[in-house]
Specification:
Shape: globular
Helix content: 10-25%
Strand order of the largest sheet: 3-2-1-4-5-7-6
Strand content: 25-35%
Number of helices: 4
Length: 138
């Protein structure tokens, strides 16, 4: 819910989930935003196949791909729930991306988010919204 609440207005034409796993979040996005294209990138074969078979919507597609090697659609919102080293790598991989990043729990190192929500879970997790590309220290 927190990640969805940070989606910029007006709604961008495409959403990309980086590491879509079993597909539940991408499917939820596709259901809530039927006029927005939703792409899930997954590099583990079993979760990818389950997602592809289980969730079928006109605006939803899953790709079996290593998203570190991808160029993201310009103007899209990227969603991530990565680990600290993955966020460092993502920061470098999004330097030419014009759009947004919504990240669950892990921040982009050395960058200040446009918005930050603190969840009421037991870990007091944060969800971050970034405008891309971000400049160092901004």
């Amino acid at each position: 819910k927190a990640m969805i609440s940070l989606i910029p207005k007006p709604t961008p034409a495409e959403f990309v989930e980086l590491g879509s796993g079993w597909g539940q979040f991408a499917n939820q996005l596709a259901s809530l935003y039927p006029n927005t294209k939703v792409i899930g990138y997954e590099r583990s074969v079993l979760p990818f196949l389950v997602s592809k078979l289980l969730y079928r919507r006109n605006n939803l597609d899953f790709h079996f791909v290593d998203f570190w090697q991808c160029t993201f659609p310009q103007g899209s919102v990227l969603f991530s729930y990565l680990y600290p080293e993955g966020m460092k790598k993502l920061s470098a991989n999004t330097q030419s991306h014009q759009g947004w990043l919504i990240s669950n729990t892990f921040s982009l190192p050395d960058h200040t988010p446009m918005k930050k929500l603190q969840l009421k879970d037991r870990f007091r997790s944060n969800v971050y919204l970034y405008k891309l590309p971000v400049e160092e220290g901004v």
